[in-house]
Each structure stands twice: as C-alpha cells, then as structure tokens.
Amino acid sequence: MLALRSCLRKALAPRALALQVCSPFATGPRQSDGTLYEFRTYFLKPSKTNEFLENFKKNVHLRTAHSELIGYWSVEFGGRTNKVFHIWKYDNFAHRTAVRKALANDKEWQERFLIPNLAFIDEQEVEITYLVPWCKIGTPPKEGVYELATFQMKPGGPALWGNAFKRAVNAHVELGYSTLVGVFHTEYGALNRVHVLWWNESADSRAAGRHWSHEDPRVVAAVRESVNYLESQQNMFLIPASFSPLK
C-alpha cells in the first residue's frame, strides 16, 4: 500500500505543478476582472477626415452617454494615414451588448451622427482586449502625444512569454522617459498580440528617450530576453483629439 501511495504521489506531482502555473497576462476563465477594452480603428476618406472628426466632436456626448471613452486619436504616422483610433471601456460582454443595442435604438445618435457620417468611413477594425492584471490605466502628467506599440508574440500564449514581456516593459518604465498608459492583451483579433500605449511630451522627447534606453544595459538585457518570443512588431504615433479624455 505504501509503495502504491508513493507511485501515485510521483505520478500526480507534475500535474499538481502544472495547475500552479500562472501568467501575468491571464485572461478567459482566469481573468478576475471582467472589464474589457474595445479597440476601434476607422479608415476614413482623405477628403472627409476633418469633417468626420468635427462631427464626432459635436456629438460625442451622445455616444459617451452609453459607455466610457478612454481615448480618441488621429494617426499621424506609422501605417496608413487618415485613420482614427479609439478605445472604449465596458464592464463585461453583456454590458457591451446592451450598449450596442441601446445605440441602435438611439434615434438622436443615429440621425445626428451615425447615418450622415457612415459614408466617410472606408473600413473598420475592432479588437477586444483585456488590460493585463499588473497594469492599470495611467494618467499622463499633462497634454502630449501617444505611441501605440503592437507586439505579435509567438504562439503559446502568455504562459510562454508573459514574464519576459513584463520585464521588458518595466525596464522601459523605470527609465522614466515615457509614461506607461496601459498594456492590453488581445482576446478577440489576432491572438498572442499585446498592445502597449505610451504617453510622451513630444515626438522629440520620445526619440531622445528611445536613444537613451537603447544604451541602458537593463533595457538591453530585458529586451533581448523578450525578443526570443517575438514574431513582429509595429507602432503608430497618435495625436489626441480635442475631445479625447486622454490628452
């Protein structure tokens, strides 16, 4: 009997250890906070970009009456231009569904903004993300500019690359040249994708900070570790709209 118990303990030990594995990016059933963030990107007709933004500014109160707007930006460079990017916060998926239903029935929103401006949009993209558990939405010290850095990581999920990625982000944060606004892990969209939103005082201060960080041994070591799990990356330089909560 003792021998049998010993064999069972040995057989179950790896399984018990596997249950203890956790990730700083845990989502799905392990996501303790159901709050989600919807990333919406609109590709606009070049001749209508300014008009679209002005129309949204006039009617933004109709939209924010239904759910919280985190930020609204124009893409200055980094990919296709005449593009706007915005982030909306929802308590959970049921909340988002209720908001979408309410918007569809909101005649004032439909007539004053949505219907007249749909023709200005060439294309739309939507991603659903979670804010990673070790990060909260940051508040920039003053008005500035933003960078959205997007990292496509190798398949395997955060259990494979989450800790290394966290160390790389924190290494940049500790230098203090840029303010971390949020780190978001995609739940619907391209999987194994992480978005990091940064605030900078200006494009030039960002450039100087990046140059400085590339010479810091702590950043270099952390990035070298994380890049082993990286497939591709891209970024966008963002200018906040006058009506954006994040300036």
Automatic annotation (TrEMBL):
Which biological process terms from the Gene Ontology are attached to this UniProt entry?
mitophagy
- The segment(s) forming the NIPSNAP domain are 37-136, 146-245
Q: Which GO terms describe its cellular component?
A: mitochondrion
Give the record's family classification: Belongs to the NipSnap family.
Protein name in UniProt: NIPSNAP domain-containing protein
Q: Name the species this protein comes from.
A: Myodes glareolus
